[in-house]
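Figure 2 data, in text form.
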Amino acid sequence: MLCLALPAAGAGLAAACHRWPNLREAMSLTSAAALFFLLSSFTQDVLQGERPELVLGEVLPGLALALELEPLGLLFALIASGLWFVSGVYSIGYMRGNQEPHQTRFYVCFALAIASAIGVALAGNLLTLYLFYEALTLVTYPLVTHHGDDEARRGGRVYLALLLLSSMLFLLPAIAITWWVSGTLDFAPGGILAGKVTGWAAAGLLALYAFGIGKAALMPIHRWLPAAMVAPTPVSALLHAVAVVKAGVFTVVKVIVYVFGFDFPRDAFAWLPWVAGFTIVAASVVALRSDNLKRRLAYSTVSQLSYVVLAAALLTPLSVVGAALHIAAHSVSKITLFFAAGAIYTAAHKTEVSQLDGIGRRMPVTMVAFTIGAISLIGLPPAVGFVSKWYIMQAAFGAQTLLPAAVILASSLLNVAYFMPIVYAAFFRAPPAGEAHGEAPLASVLALAATAAGTVALFFAPQVPLALARALVGS
């Protein structure tokens, strides 16, 4: 219960301390650190097979609001809580450096978003997951529309409409059908639908889940993500790395593992790798053509999320391990890239890729961190993205299917094409004459340096996420 109470308390304390900015931010950081250490204390028990659970209340006979901590949920919760702390440090530099308005509202909604993400991570059944999933959409809307201008409101409308409509029109009916067919919404190892729905009906139910989980950003349910880039950069980091999109791909993996199960007939999943593969390549092409840095990173996220969907759709234990690892790898890598983009905007007021000539000479720490994040998403050592892509490729070869391997290779080459020119221009081209800015505020630089270091550290020491991923599949 404390796992939900701590971020909620952090939101309340931030609101109460609105007149004292230093105390407000200290309360936010303290709540984040306490939540991370609390969740970390469960790690050994979960790895040894324990599944702590708590029933919050019964809605109908046999249908309860329930929490249960299992390996995938713990992995997601550790990512969200750990990156909440780093985002809090970064936000101090960014929000003050850009003199952003409504900073208390920002910290309150950020904490409530983490509380909702933790609720998604700890959900013991589909009903509980759905309620927290929707809560996450609603509490992040004020963050997306933070600036309050016409552009922010337009982006917020797209964000809210696509996420709410997809979940109500597709995800909610999928949950109702699952209840009707199986008689339960509880997550169970091995799945709850095996032998109860087959053929086209099974493929259709999977489609309702895949497109109803709009936060996973499968095309064409993806436009909310670039539309939300009107938000401040710490919000972009929240959307892309900490909570929102990770709640989406986490839910996809959880449904595949605990609702459908590894023994589910594979013909129902035959179409999903093609949709995920198309999303990976198409989003990479859009990213390649985008000059706005945050837009390029947004479409990179759309592409990278479908790595997780593609891997999970292979329906093998090894592919699901790769999917779970890529959730962690993408989180720490992409937050580094967004932190760097925000630092560039804060220090140099630059937003376009074409403006970044020589910026590595003015902001070396920021651009080295950016390079590490880019290398990770390309899938090169020594960065953690190599580890997750290795597992997914091994699963693809083990399943004797060439589509995932071909898609990952093509996407990696496209990643090189849209990331490496930024790095080249930053370090090997001369900066504009008379440009004299330096690094962003210290808090922001410390945060992006920490996440870049984490990206490398997880390459050499991936034991915790790897152990939780293996425990997810029972091996």
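Caption note: The longest helix spans residues 150-182.
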